[in-house]
Design goal:
Elements (H helix, E strand, L loop, with lengths): L2 H29 L2 E4 L3 H24 L11 H25 L8 E3 L16 H16 L3 H30 L1 H9 L9
Antiparallel strand pairs: 1-2
Helix pairs in contact: 1-2, 1-3, 1-4, 2-5, 3-4, 4-5, 5-6
Amino acid sequence: MTLDIAGRMAWVLLVVGWYAIRFSFERRARRAHVSDDRKTSDEWLRMAISTIGLGILPAIYVASGQPRVASYAASPWLFALGLAALVAALVLFRRTHKALGKMWSVSLQLKEDHKLVTTGIYARVRHPMYSAFWLMALAQALLLPNWIAGLAGLAGFGTLFFLRIGPEERMMEQAFGEEWRAYAARTWRVIPFIH
């Protein structure tokens, strides 16, 4: 088996792991009544761009090897780092979902009786789910030796992140006021000690 094929298979495992984790939490979260829904057309566009980068373009590459013109020789070092990022991403993704429980939503929403989660994985980082997605995008870039398919996740998720983080934090501040401001003052946004 070539490293290219192994990288494609690892990416498929990443997607399957992501879906397996998300499925049960999404079913539970749907049962909770939404009290504040900010899914605008801008939010749908951000989600679509992220889906293209983290899902559609890499899936085309995994299935067909296209676009071949953007492919390069796979590296065992990049593959090993990609596997490490994959494992870290899924572990972090699971921990964030578990910590949020019914407060989780795929978009900018607050649930009825929404509580600000500040414990567990959220004690030091305000947005560890975004941290997990950055790790997923990094794993994709390292596992898929194709300039377009590999880097599409960083570009797609990066677009979602940079356009969504401000509105999300404003929504949380409006909902939780001083509790949010105090929490934001003592935590990192995505990466401890960096950002």
